[in-house]
Amino acid sequence: MSDTYSMTEARANFGTLVRRAAHSRERVAITDHGHIAAILINPQELADLEDSLALAEYQLEKTTGTVTTVSHDHVVREAEGEPRGNAA
Q1: 85 within some domain
Q2: How much is the pTM?
Q3: Could you write out the three-class secondary structure of 30-66?
Q4: In 3-state terms, what secondary structure has residue 19?
């Protein structure tokens, strides 16, 4: 984390802080009474973190044998709007 600002400081510099987070991978922490309350983060970095988490969760399910899969035919039926439970 690069910088930390109180809510008062963040409010006064909000536009600048948002632009810094948006245009770089710099994270900006905002504190409330000395405790971090929020972090401004680049949207692509957030997407990357969410993808990494989803992959880690999948790998854990795969390792523990709890992966739930769906057949291709089921996906096609769902996409075509066929009611659930109807087998082709």
Answers
A1: no
A2: 0.64
A3: EEECCEEEEEECCHHHHHHHHHHHHHHHHHHHHHHCC
A4: helix
